[in-house]
Amino acid sequence: MRHLILFLGLLVFAPPVSAVDPSEMLSNSLMETRAREISKGLRCVVCQNQSIDDSDAALARDLRVLVRERLVAGDSDNEVVEYVVSRYGDFVLLKPPFKGATLVLWGGPVLFVLIAFFAGLGFYRRQRRGAPSKPAAVALSKTERARLNDLLDKGGS
User: What is the number of alpha carbons within 13 Å of residue 6 lying toward its C-beta?
Assistant: First the structure.
């Protein structure tokens, strides 16, 4: 039991895993911290749901190296991000800016939800409209009643 608690504690309090290779890291800890912060905001264009800091893809590694090279060259954090965006577009940002070119990125999910809602509403209405209403009760004729009574009498005995 003690081992289980230790294991669960390690899972909860373990530091996040990063794909940054030690050979990529800068010797200046302040520059490395800046590089890591920039990398956390840049999307891996191969993985698409990971930052380049978390991705093992070769392109993500190249972008991490590029970020560090630009920082060593003296670029500010904003200049590094602008440089990467100039090469890969706003899609490379995990939080793209809200502007005309990125309207699809921001409005796409809302548009899909609205389309699904109205399609579901239309389907529901078609089903309700096409559903037959309750049939009116129809009285049995004398011959039908006699036949029913005959069947019931035979089934009961």
Answer: 3
- Which ranges constitute the DSSP H helices of the chain? 2-13, 29-40, 58-72, 77-88, 103-130, 142-156
Tens place of pLDDT for every residue, the chain, 157 residues? 776 676 655 555 544 445 565 667 777 889 889 999 999 999 988 887 888 888 888 898 999 999 999 999 999 999 999 999 999 888 888 887 877 777 777 788 889 999 999 999 999 888 888 766 677 778 889 999 999 999 998 875 5
Query: Reduced to 3 states, what is the DSSP secondary structure of residue 51?
Result: strand
- In the chain, the domains with their CATH numbers are 28-94 (1.10.8.640)
Q: Give the pTM.
A: 0.55
Residue 42, classed as helix, strand or coil, is: strand
Q: Are 46 and 59 in contact (CB under 8 A)?
A: yes
User: Are 44 and 52 in contact, with CB atoms under 8 Å apart?
Assistant: yes
Cβ contacts of 51-55, under 8 Å, gap ≥ 24? 51/94, 53/18, 53/19, 53/20, 54/16, 54/17, 54/18, 54/19, 55/19
The angle formed by the CA atoms of residues 87, 92 and 98, to the nearest 5 degrees, is 105
